[in-house]
Structures are given as C-alpha cells and as structure tokens.
Specification:
Blueprint lengths: L1 H19 L1 H4 L7 E4 L5 H9 L10 E8 L2 E8 L2 E6 H6 L10 E6 L7 H10 L18 H12 L9 E2 L12 H10 L8 E2 L2 H5 L4 E5 L2
Antiparallel strand pairs: 1-2, 1-5, 2-3, 3-4, 5-8, 6-7
Length: 216
C-alpha cells in the first residue's frame, strides 16, 4: 500500500512540476493544434469508432493554441460554445493512468505557417458563438474541428487547408446508425447529416499539412 501511494504521489508531483513550467520547457508554438482523447460517454465511443487518428490513436476533441501576454490558451469549441481556455485547464481535463495529459500536438508544416496569424484572428472573432450541434458548415456556429477548419480556410483566401470528408454516424461493423446519434438528431428535430461534408479530430490528425508529435 505504501509503495502504491508513493507512486501516485510521485506521478502527481511530476505532473504539477510540468504544469508549473509548461510555458518555458515545452516547445509550444502559436497555431499548434492540440488533439485530445477525452471522455464523453457513448458520443466519444462513436467518434472513435468511425475515424482512426494518427498512428491509430483516438482523438475526440481538438483546439488551437494561442499566446496572449506571455500566457498560453486554447481556442476551442465545446458544448458551451467557442471559448478561449487556459492551456493549464485544457491539459488537466483528461489524464492517462500515469497522470499525463491525453494530448498530442499537430504543427503546420513550414510552407503553411504563414497562415497562422490570420487564422488565430479569425478563430478569436468566433469567441462566444454557439456550439454547432447540427454539424452544419452553413450556420453561424462551430464544433471543434470546424472552428479550426474555418479559421485556416479564411486565412488561405477561401481555399480549404484541411480537407473535409463525408461524415458518417453509422457503426462501421453493422452499417446501422449508432443509437446515441439516432436519438441525438431526433431530439434536435433534424435529419441525420449522413454523407454531408465535415471534419473530426481523428481525420484532421491525418491531414498531410500537419506534422504530428508527442509532447508528454
């Protein structure tokens, strides 16, 4: 029991040390995309099943890194809408069994980094906008990957930087709608947008414009 508690305390100490010096020790860069493997029940399980991420990893959320006055934040779209979240809070949201953030970093390749500054400005303009519950590119709301896609599309003179793909809400094994999605769209009173264009974090992590890397 003593040894087990010691390991737990040591992991906690190491993580707190990491958080206290995160701004100086890690090679953060504005415009980095943080890919997160979070827990949101059946929704996250359905997301994981339809798109495998980089090197087979599972991602359910992503956000865009920005620095303001020497402090790091993540521009993200969650169920609460578009917000600017302190990096510390973002990283603490989901931890693995060793107490490390379940996050991987995607960095734009050098030939695309000139788009970052304008993309960040476009993403910031959307703070306060609602979450895009309908996964619809044409409304004035955003889900996580859509926010990043939109920001870089504007910066890229209206051309897609990240490539949208047809969305699916079906179990790849049974070809039937996941029950959680069937209920979700029924409650919204809209048809399931099966086959419509969209993006998700796993698919975005595979886009060739990014260089993926681990940071923890």
């Amino acid at each position: 029991m003593y040894k087990k508690n010691l390991i737990i305390y040591l992991n906690l100490f190491l993580f707190l040390t990491f958080l206290s010096c995160q701004d100086s020790t890690l090679d953060w860069q504005e415009g980095d995309i943080l890919f997160q493997d979070g827990e949101c029940g059946d929704f996250c399980e359905a997301i994981r099943k339809v798109t495998e991420g980089y090197e087979g990893r599972e991602f359910t959320h992503n956000g865009l890194l920005i620095n303001e006055n020497g402090k790091w934040y993540v521009l993200e779209a969650t169920s609460q809408g578009v917000s600017q979240t302190p990096l510390h809070d973002f990283l603490e949201r989901h931890l693995d069994h060793n107490g490390r953030p379940k996050v991987m970093l995607g960095r734009l390749k050098p030939e695309y980094q000139h788009l970052i500054s304008q993309a960040l400005e476009e993403a910031k303009k959307q703070i306060g906008k609602p979450y895009d519950a309908a996964f619809d590119f044409d409304n004035d709301a955003f889900y996580c990957s859509e926010l990043i896609h939109f920001a870089f599309k504007v910066a890229n003179d209206g051309d897609d930087l990240f490539t949208p793909q047809p969305m699916t809400f079906r179990d790849p094994k049974t070809k039937k709608l996941f029950p959680i999605w069937k209920t979700y769209f029924e409650e919204l009173g809209i048809p399931v947008p099966e086959g419509q264009m969209g993006l998700n974090p796993g698919g975005m992590s595979l886009d060739p414009v990014l260089k993926m890397r681990t940071v923890f």
